[in-house]
Description:
CATH architecture: Alpha-Beta Barrel
Radius of gyration: 20 Å
CATH class: Alpha Beta
Largest sheet: 8 strands, parallel, barrel
Number of domains: 1
Helix content: 40-55%
Order of helices and strands: EHEHEHEHHEEEHEHEEHHHEHEHH
CATH topology: TIM Barrel
Amino acid sequence: MTAExxxxxxxxxxxxxxxxxxxxxxxxxxxxxxxxxxxxNREQILLAERLGYDSTLIAQHxxxxxxxxxxxLETWTATAALAATTTSIELxxxxxxxxxxxxxxxxxxxxxxxxxxxxxxxxxxxxxFRPEIEQAGIVFPExxxxxxxxxxxxxxxxxxxxxxxxxxxGRYFDVDGYQLHPTGRFRTRPQLYVGGESDPxxxxxxxxxxxxxxxxxxxxxVRRLIADVAxxxxxxxxxxxxxxxxxxxRPDEAAAEAELRRHWxxxxxxxxxxxxxxxxxxxQAVMFATFAKYPAIGTNGGTAAGLVGSYxxxxxxxxxxxxxxxxxxxxxxxxxxxxxxxxxxxVIPRVRSLLTTDGAEAVGVAGALGA
Length: 371
């Protein structure tokens, strides 16, 4: 347990995606209507906290990429509200550097860190949906330039959140003698998650990140990606790793496969929404090549991670990923709340039992919240 959060820090960590888009799978699921309301998200994350989930990821878009008519909850105001509403769950707020000046975002983050008493993390993503940037009159640089911008942006934010007096004169930002208060009241700074699978993304997490979020995909791919980042130059503690996945777990494999077929049938009804996402996506983003190779239910790789099967099979696959180096599993479900409860009741205890029975050395996170 940590003194800061009171949460278990042994073994794999499990998180859930907040429903800020309204759904993470089909818009046509009869038991899971599209609902991105604050009320739904509040109750979802409070339930996750009661069930013992360690983290939630609050993704960032200003407009919903699936439909111009769908609601979209804003990340940083929602995270501030969750910080005041929850008591122990880690709040991982996504941020696109193009949308916020680093001094402004650092101050917002420092305030949420204060409200949450040391439970905020940042997930730095460098944007892929062109319309929400360009239609606001903001220049959408090409892929590698976005990462160069993001790397300099993160240098400023990281130093400000660490309480430093920041003098920074770079290609994109000039900051002269800036310091924020309060910082460091609960730990040195919030931890930093980085997303993306291109070489610039890997360089960014090796240079400045604490945790690398990998999109859902087969285990052998994940092993290669981890090895690639682990061999890059690094100062300080090793990078830790998280994985996105969509879970379909049932008492037996046949029932899980039947549910998966149902999801594929529902997904066919969502084709107009998928077309809008593809039309607005930056095709230089490496993740879209991965998604094309491994079609899946859910976003960010979803079921391509293979967490579909009986309760025992899903637990065994999680243990395999954990042994390969995955610490945090950031999960999606549909219908979200009911399946989140099922996973907590049926799969998490099996994972803990497998690790205990086999005498596996769990990847602890005792230092994670104090990074």
